[in-house]
Amino acid sequence: MVWTDILAIILGLAGLVGCILPVIPGPPLSWAGLLVLFLTHQGAISTTGLLIWLAVTIVVTVLDYVVPSWMTRATGGSKAAGRGALIGSIVGLLLFAPWGIIVGPFAGALIAELLFARKDFGGSVISALGAFLGFISSTIVKLIISGIILYKILSCVVG
């Protein structure tokens, strides 16, 4: 096993960890492991395969910020709560990482519902729980994608 194989595995593992720790960009790191394989192992992954995984990585990364907002709306939250969840995600990540990305969507949706939609506290909490469920859903999807990429890396390096 050469150092590039070790680097690809480390990137794959870091990507998996990054799915849970919000300060680490999980799927992009996993994809970087695939890129290392592409550059160092001829035929391990095709150009088309690499580009497809790049597209999947981009979509999953974007959805990670959008899904909490969408779930907020799906649980009866207002447009303001959906925007609050998105803003809460970003502010939470920037100011209170790593826990801010978990609490941020909930707090953002709750505050927006209370201030702008003028809902009662109970209804606002339900909308905010939607934001939290969106966070959990997107985390599961990231784990699945990064896990598949890690499997591909390991199968190319070890197998």
Helix and strand arrangement:
Blueprint: H1 3-18, H2 26-40, H3 47-74, H4 79-96, H5 100-117, H6 121-157
Helix pairs in contact: 1-2, 1-6, 2-3, 2-6, 3-4, 3-6, 4-5, 5-6
Short overview:
Helices cover 83% and strands 0% of the residues. By secondary structure, the chain is an all-alpha fold.
The oligomeric state of the chains shown is: single chain
Annotation, overall tally of beta strands: 0
Number of helices: 6
Point out poorly predicted stretches.
Answer: none
Order of helices and strands: HHHHHH
Beta-strand percentage?
A: under 5%
Helix content: over 70%
Span from first to last CA? 11 Å
Helix/strand/pairing category: mainly alpha
Mean pLDDT: 89
Q: Kindly provide the radius of gyration, computed on alpha-carbon positions and rounded to a whole number of angstroms.
A: 18 Å
Q: Outline, from the CA principal axes?
A: elongated
Which tags fit this structure?
159 residues; mainly alpha; elongated
Task: Explain what this protein looks like in three dimensions.
The chain has 159 residues and is an all-alpha fold. The protein has one domain. It has 6 helices and no strands. α1 (3-18) packs antiparallel against α6 and α3 crosses α4. The longest helix has 37 residues, at 121-157. The relative contact order is 0.17. The model has no long low-confidence stretch (mean pLDDT 89).
